[in-house]
Amino acid sequence: MRGETDPRVFYGRSMAELARETLPRIVGLIQHLIQGDNKRDGVEVRQAQPDGSVRYAMSNAHLVQLDGHYTRLWVILRDITEQKRLQAEHEALQLQFRQSQRMESLGLLAGGIAHDFNNLLVVIENCAQFAGEDMERNPTEARTSLRHMKDASTKAAALVRSLMAFARPKTGVAKPLLIDDLITELLTLLRRLIPGRIELNSQLHSGAAMEADPGQLEQVLVNLVINAVDAIADTGEITLTTRICTLNELQRAAHPWVQHNDFVNISVCDTGPGVTPEVSSRIFEPFFTTKTEAKGSGLGLSVVWGAVKLHGGFVEVTDRNDKNSGACFQVFLPRSSGVVQPTKAPNPVGEVWLGTETILVADDHELVLGVTKSLLERAGYRVLVARDGQEALDVFEANKDSINLVLLDAIMPKITGFTAYQKIQAAKPGVGIIVASGHTSDVFPEEWLQATKPVMLSKPFRSEELLKSIRSVLSQGSS
Fold first, then answer.
1. Structural domain containing residue 378
2. Own/partner long-range contacts of 422-429 (Cβ < 8 Å, ≥24 apart)
3. pLDDT score recorded for residue 350
4. Could you tell me if 322 and 220 lie in one domain?
5. pTM for this entry
6. Domain count along the chain
7. What is the pLDDT of residues 15-67, one digit of tens each?
8. What CATH number has the domain bearing residue 439?
9. Minimal CA–CA distance to 473: which of 403, 419, 415?
């Protein structure tokens, strides 16, 4: 374990000297053995080497008694350094596979998203023209056109947020969620993956909670839907269903890693030709595929299997249970006993959040800067503006005694929002700061976000959302 080749280096040296890192665990192990059943297997041991590297071993320990007294401690160490290295490489490859699959999915989504955006732009551009023409001669029609523009922009904002939520790198942390809610939110994007000749239906009836990584579950569903699309040559149907189920003995025997009995079953069924027994037996193997080279690498379903197994579940492939041909991919995931409140849309804010304080707005987009300045001035605020990060610092330094709050764009030229945030906070501790952006993952480190918990405002924001956030931050600063 120490990498020494000459046993004489151990002569006259105590255990405390030879195993400083592992001594506390050894003492704890001995205490456990004395208080327990005299035997302890499967304890991992870490040992630093003279050259600075680290080796790992799995220990099996046994206390030996003689005349009622413990006289010896037998310990067998099995070197698992190489095994841990291979496991780390495997996990890194799995992560690369998932990222690759996500990028492929985003490429498929791009066409559908562009189509929807073009439709929304048609509405916005034409209604803007109608409103301008009708402003004086027909105010009622002008207001109708403005209402249509607002509806279209709201739909565009929801589309962007859905896409960003899917594209944003996930931390890989499991959290409580309602699987029906996750699928409902994902359906908007899933429909962009599917050509018009195929119908996507859902029957979500589980109402079940679980502990899961939402990013990985999204990728599982996207991969299964893409697989179903590829299986349907002409017109057809894909159906997503959820239900609560209990495993039978055959399922438990076939998947020995399963530790729960109550499961959520997510089915993705298609009306394609189905899956033969020969294909079914190999379908989750990496790089195994029945598709042409242009249609896939064969990694999609292996990523599905790996992600589901990581959550303590498994996947089965069955035939549809109705008169139609096709295949059903049945995902089984452990059900949580915890209670998760359903996601509800926020109620519209009816109050007007006015103020007279001074606010610095920093944004490199001239139109956004102008609209935000007008919005805040209408609410009574005094507004200073900056068009990049450096100008934001300069304006703040010149007016820091009078500035009560800073509204920062996360991504700006010269100096990023992250750097500007830190410098402004250092120059005037306690000043209110709100970060407004479409996404922050490339600018603000995840660890910093978790530790600092800055006030974030997602673009595009409504006037009520911005004014309410500003009033909330200013109220906290004065309390």
1. 358-478
2. 423/393, 424/392, 424/393, 424/396, 427/396, 427/397, 427/400, 428/396, 428/400, 428/403
3. 42
4. yes
5. 0.50
6. 4
7. 556 555 556 666 666 666 666 666 666 677 777 777 778 888 887 777 777 77
8. 3.40.50.2300
9. 403
